[in-house]
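It would be a great kindness if you could assist me with a short task in structural biology. A protein sequence and the structure tokens that stand for its backbone fold form the material at issue. I should value your view on which stretches of the chain appear to form regular backbone elements. The record follows directly beneath this note.
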Amino acid sequence: MQQILNQWSWGMLLTVFCSTAKLSFGAEIPTTELSVDTQDRLAVMAFWNRYYTSSSDADEVMDWTGNYAICSPGTVSVAYIEKIERRINFFRAMAGVHADTLVNTGSTVVIGTTDPYKPSVSDTKQEAAEIAAVMFSWAGQISHEPPPALPYSCWTLAAWNAAYRSNLAIGYHGPDAVDAYLREEEKGVISNPTAGHRRWLLNQGSTDFATGNTPGNGTDTLLPTNVLYVIQSPSEQVSYEPKYVPWPSAGFFPDALMTRLWSLSHPNADFSKATVTMTGPDGEIAATITDQELLGQGAPTLVWSIPSEWAETDVDADQVFTVHVDGIEILGETESYSYEVTVFDPDELGMEQPLTGTATPPLTGANYHFQAIPAADAQGVDVLTTSSADWEEGAENGTMEFIEDGTDDTYELSVSNFKKSGSRSFRMRLTLPSGSGLPPSQTLSILRETITGSGSKLKYFLKRGYMGSGEYLDVEVSHDQSNWTVVDSVVGNNAVDANFSARNIDLEEGESVWIRFVLRYASGSIYTGNDNRIGCFIDDISISNADWVTAKSTLLPSSHADSVRLDEETLGEAPWVGMQRGLVPWTELGGRKYPSPISHSVTFVEAVGGFGEWIAADYPTASGAFEGDLDGDGLSDGLEYALSTNPSEPGVLTSEVSMFDSVIRLELPLAELKEDVDYRMEISTDLQEWSDTGASVLWTDDLLIGECFVESPAVYARWAIEPK
């Protein structure tokens, strides 16, 4: 069910929504004092992961103890309220306003002198919002001025007060309702052209909100509700520097929050004569003003809509929009305001993660260098142990170890009535939702991380049973089990295929991928009933020319923030000649790990020693030449090799010189004598001509000693260290 109702009441607009979205639940983190630099892509990405994602899946922690039958609002968990508080402050921080607001502080209700119904002055906003939420769920509808009559069986003076001074939603509760208030549209349909809910939530001076929520019962008889008390008493207003507040906010903006309804607020503005122009990726975009005069809903605001094709919530590439507003009057002066919004996908890192290092590390180990990202929480490299992908998934009994069943429990995933080979196949079918809404997607995931090779193909056999023309079986791949890309799609045709047909999908070489099958509803009717031919049947899933990951470990940087070492200690076992491993660099932002899609294959070889192996294995970013200077300290990489010093850390060469009985002596600390290096002492009388005639070199007790008899004390001595 989807119900849209707009009603003007005391400067607030009421919208009814009915849909839900689920995101991953993050670790417990702060809910207040939030801030973010929206001009920094990685900062917004980390902010999204840490604060938005962690305020999702609130229904899992709601723990509502209310009772509809006796109009009891009960209680919800502290964790649930924290998610709502965090979500509100996330949006406020994105908009650049005070993001330290509190929820359910115990503050008392706001009562107007002309209110027809007045609760006790000691009633709290929280109590009022909670009973109002029960009232609306029981009634099955919402209103800013509910009468003390049916269908509002749970009506009280406090419930009326909350209804009058709150944002209201039915079909949503908790953080999902907060999203709906900011979006102000549903599936491309604008439900609140004045953006009233948004204006109250982003009001610059607000510090105190209260909320009441019900979870519903999973059917249309009792829907979830949210009541968010937004009106502030004067004492709850914080002082602030007046500023423009755009939404979508300027800078980088997550695509999942995109909406058709844009707005620009300013507490001192008169937008009644303002005009707005917009450009997007393909040039000018039609901007239709939907409100520019209404007052009483937070700050004065200019509101406009854009075509639905430019409000995508899942973009493949960054979309840059520029906004220019003319004719704004601020305290008697006319001015303009311009800004830019870059809509991006926070599920994609948006940059390559190169890994530099040898493909043939010696048994003694090698270093691997990645690009340091200062904004990252952490970076590292996963080490993959792989085996040839000789598996085949066919739904046979006892072979489902690597299958994750994401289908409805009203039918069996493994069936025997149709099969390509063996005795069974996988079956997926759409089912009716438990309450309102659309038929939920069904998923079958293969829990095998696969490293693709040259000519890799995903192959499976498909037999369509009764599938509606609005049903799609999508095959998807992912590098992180979070962001999925469709690589094959088959639509139903309202008939049962005569046979299984082979489906072959080319896969990019050298990538780490996961595979899943998703049966989705798009439109029309679905087949119901117990006919075992309903749905689609999948058998003999395999990947050719690939390896699958049988074990995984992680390398973390030690002394160097941009490199890791692969050796016996970090592997946890002694490498052997021919040992193969896959190396996948990753970056963590806001508690979320972004693995590179590229797996780098390495094979251990016998250590042969020498400068070439040393520089390639341990310092892969160096030039590789003996005369190179990785750290720019004036000491060549070859010299640092010869002296067993670190060419990536600037240093100074110190050598002692002395003379006794006409013998000049040089001493140089040296832990190891390299067999492929020539160590010589040379003498000169003019700094032009140098010779090692008569000079001897001895290495003993970690000391390189050079001596030469000279006839005159007016001589110069130096070390000559070169490759043999």
Summary: The longest helix spans residues 78-95. The chain has four domains: 8-338, 355-388+550-618, 403-540, 656-723. Residues 1-27 have pLDDT under 50 and may be disordered.
